[in-house]
Structure formats: C-alpha cells, structure tokens
Structure prediction request, 200 residues.
Amino acid sequence: MNTTYTSLPWDPEGSTYQQEISLENGKSYPGYSRRLGKEEPRDKRVLLQNMILRMYDVGYLNEQNPNRTNAIQIVYSWKNKLGKFVHAFTLYQDCYEWNPDHYRDYLDAFLSEFYRLKRIGENPYEKLYENKKTRMADPLSLSPPRFFNKPNLRNYCVRLIKSNIREFGEVLDFYRKYSQTHFDGFGDEDQSFFDNIKFG
Prediction:
C-alpha cells in the first residue's frame, strides 16, 4: 500500500464505512474508507469488499501471518440516511455475524466466499481483490471469480446486453461457462432466464 496515502489522517466525516479492529493483545484501532484530501472509489460495493480483503492481506484476519497480531473481531459500520454510522456486521477469524437490520444478500455472498477460501487454505486477497487493472480487463473473463451467486451474475449479464457491451450470444456463452466453472452448472432455469430477458 502507498505509504504516502496511509500517512494521511482518516476522514470520518467523508467516509462511507468505518471499521473497529480489536486485537488479541487488547489494543483496538479505528479505520475508515477515506483519507483526508482523497476521494473514495465510486463503486461502494468494491470499496467495502476491498477494505475487508486488506484486513486479510495485512494479517489481521490471517492467522497464518506471523508478523501481525490477530484480530479478535472487526466491527463494520456504514452511514444511515442521517449520516450516522450504524453497526452492519462483525467479522471474526472463522465466521461473521450480521446485524439483522442491515443484512445485504450481495455482501453475504461475498463474505461466504471469503471464509470458504480461508477454510480451504486459499488466499482471499489474491482471488477476490479488485483494482482498476482487473476491472478494465475482459468483461467475459472467467477468472478470477467475480460473482458470488447466480443472481449477481445474471444482473451483470443483463447489463452487458442492454448496454450493448457484448452481443446476446456472447453473453449467454459466458454465463454458461461461468456457471459450469464456478457454480452448479447450466440448467433449464438458466436458459429460461435468458429466454425471458426483455429488451428496450
């Protein structure tokens, strides 16, 4: 991470997200999604997911990293309509817990994949982190995995088609291959979804 960037103070007022890191040694540290004088990325979903992934990369959520004290928990909050931070969910080393009032299915799918990769000894940061380079890559690439359930994949495919980014046949082929590679295959329900896409 850029040391010049990390030397800047946090900007709580301008941040969308807040994290409170509690460590095994008794110390705790706040963190935010924005530094003073810097702008947040427009895609707030990617912003939050990358915040979580960095906690693994620097070692707080990676028990195999000997150079960093493990976190007991990391509490995440986001701003409500009044601009106040509200507790959304809490991460532990091997599981996570939602505040039921702020459950988000797309984020739950990401967190499930994050912990699945941890359990099987894979590196979630390497598999899931999104930067400008990866986001400008081929929109029909099958790797790294970018979608954590079929509803997210379907929404993406509809956007590709309706925005004329790719032809219908190309997107259908991508969906079929992605489903066969990362999910439970391509079935009648998937074909029906594409048969019923409304254009215009």
The radius of gyration is 19 Å. The CA atoms of residues 116 and 122 lie 9 Å apart. Helices lie at 3-6, 44-57, 105-119, 124-128, 132-135, 150-162, 168-182, 188-195.
